[in-house]
Amino acid sequence: MGTTLGGRRRQPIRAETVRRSVLVAERREVPDFRRSWAVIALGGSLDDATVDQVEREIQQLAGEGARLIVDVSELHYLDDFGVDMLVLLAHHMHKRGGGLMALVDRHGYIRQILGEAGLEGLLPLFPGVADAMRGLEEDPPG
């Protein structure tokens, strides 16, 4: 059962079998004539047992002014620790040199979780990597 966030109790999204580790699957530079984007794909679980490892790895990749897309489409489990990490990471990236971060959420799970927690709109969410790149170029979060 998920912990409370914003005073609400919610159930984390689970697949039939939950992998207890999160995988930072890849970092790849996405060709773009104007900017270089780092894309990181996460899978498995993002929870109290894995969030510190993932946060350290992402922060190593996200330098000042970084443009980061985190693909969370393959996450099978996300608890409040994971939500907090994603929200705080995006906030710190923006404050520390104007970096940008967006999430790719092909299945809508993260949007649902953020909505249930009353946090919808805090993180830019897109259905695909190209959509995220376009969206952040056209309307960067302020």
Structure report:
With 142 residues, the protein is of the alpha/beta class. It has a single domain (22-138), classed as STAS domain (Transcription Regulator spoIIAA). It is 32% helix and 27% strand. The protein contains four helices and five strands; from the N terminus they run ββαβαβαβα. It has helices spanning 51-61, 80-95, 109-116, 129-138; strands spanning 22-30, 37-46, 67-78, 100-104, 125-126. A five-stranded mixed beta sheet has the order 1-2-3-4-5, with helices on both faces.
The helix-strand sequence is EEHEHEHEH
Form type: globular
Q: Please identify the top-level CATH class.
A: Alpha Beta
Mean pLDDT: 75
CATH topology assignment: Transcription Regulator spoIIAA
Strand order of the largest sheet: 1-2-3-4-5
Largest sheet: 5 strands, mixed
Rg measurement, Å: 14 Å
**CATH architectural arrangement:** 2-Layer Sandwich
Low-confidence stretches: 1-34
Give me the CATH superfamily: STAS domain
Structural class: alpha/beta
Give the number of DSSP strands.
5
Helix content: 25-40%
Discrete helix count: 4
Summary?
The protein is of the alpha/beta class and 142 residues long.
Key features?
about 25% strand; Transcription Regulator spoIIAA; alpha/beta; about 140 residues; 4 helices; globular; disordered N terminus
Protein topology:
Layout: E1 22-30, E2 37-46, H1 51-61, E3 67-78, H2 80-95, E4 100-104, H3 109-116, E5 125-126, H4 129-138
Parallel strand pairs: 2-3, 3-4, 4-5
Antiparallel strand pairs: 1-2
